[in-house]
Amino acid sequence: MLGQLCHQAGIDAIVLERRSRKHVLSRIRAGVLEQGFVDLLQEAKVATRMDTEGYPHDGTVISFEDMEVRVDFRKHTGTSVMVYGQTEVTRDLYEARDQTGGLTLHDVDEVELGNAALDGDEGCTVSFTHDGQRKTIECDYIAGCDGFHGPSRRAIPAEKRKEFERVYPFGWLGILSETPPAHHELIYANSERGFALCSMRNERLSRYYLQAPLTDRVEDWSDDAFWAELKRRIPSRIAETLVTGPSIEKSIAPLRGFVCEPMQYGRLFLAGDAAHIVPPTGAKGLNTAASDIHYLFEALKARYQERDAAAMGGYSERALARVWKTQRFSWWMTKLLHRFPDTDPYELRIQRAEIEHLATVESAQQTMAINYVGLPY
Ligand code: DHB
């Protein structure tokens, strides 16, 4: 995304990718895009397919045992979210990059960042192994968009960064199936058997998740067991008409919140999972990576187009202000919708009261809607 935006602005960028293009395009990732991300894709001129094949959603349903609340995004914010898979966004970006002739190196390994701390005229370097050879790129800046396990964050000396973490005591078991969605909007369900989510990619492709113990493995869950458990957790009117079928992907992921401060160190700028992780409830992971890219791109444009030497210095502060708000929202949704090992009758009444508050207080729905469609950049 940053590479494509830079290309539009006449800023040279090389993308280094650890895996193959085939691998990147085979991963099933998030599926709900905030309005700001939709605008960013339009700015990057990669929105044509999303505009025709994506599904704008004007609201979502939250259920708690026998209660259902619909939160109307359009009514409360005047906008909507876009259901369009991250895998499709990646495919569109690859195609745009093919057309512009931008350089993306795949299967890159043993990446080392050099001189990232230097603020002088010297620039910095990235060294790596590619095609069996050791190579080095000299550059002005490094965008560390290399995920939680990548080398960028660790290139910031430990004493120069502060890390904040919340580990949740359960995971999400997800499946993708070639079946019509359970409902025309997403359903987030808190049931006495735990959380469930009914999502989708298109009219023939559905995505479902179940809260599951961290000790469960994918092999422990047959498709039949998954569907049976899902039906027990979602509103009965939805369960009755649910169309089931074989899963075409099944995976399990742990839940955690994580933030690294600051998000920049000299010439290195962290973005996305390299700097922060959210629990998936509310679909903020990809979207928060996109807002980082917006701030980083704005800084790069000011630096190169307006020769504003100070522009890069404000990135971390601007990005983190929004990062913490999406952490808060993801934490709130996760707390509201899951059964924790220590959820006692008192906590359950609090969850129910929060849902009743949401059901009856318009300003509570508005707060949820504003956050779900995405806070302004
Ligand atoms: C999806 C994932 C989420 O975490 C979420 O809140 C909504 C949808 C999805 O993969 O479709």
Automatic annotation (TrEMBL):
Which keywords fit this entry according to its UniProt record? FAD, Flavoprotein, Monooxygenase, Oxidoreductase
Q: Name one GO biological process term.
A: benzoate catabolic process
State its Enzyme Commission number(s).
Answer: 1.14.13.2
Task: Tell me which Gene3D superfamilies the record gives.
Answer: D-Amino Acid Oxidase, subunit A, domain 2 (3.30.9.10), FAD/NAD(P)-binding domain (3.50.50.60)
The record's annotation in InterPro entries points to: FAD-bd (IPR002938), FAD/NAD-bd_sf (IPR036188), HB_mOase (IPR012733), RIFMO-like (IPR050641)
Q: Example GO molecular function term?
A: FAD binding
Describe the location of the FAD-binding domain by residue ranges.
1-329
UniProt xrefs under NCBIfam families: pbenz_hydroxyl, PRK08243.1
Q: What is this protein called?
A: 4-hydroxybenzoate 3-monooxygenase
| Organism ancestry | Bacteria, Pseudomonadati, Pseudomonadota, Alphaproteobacteria, Rhodobacterales
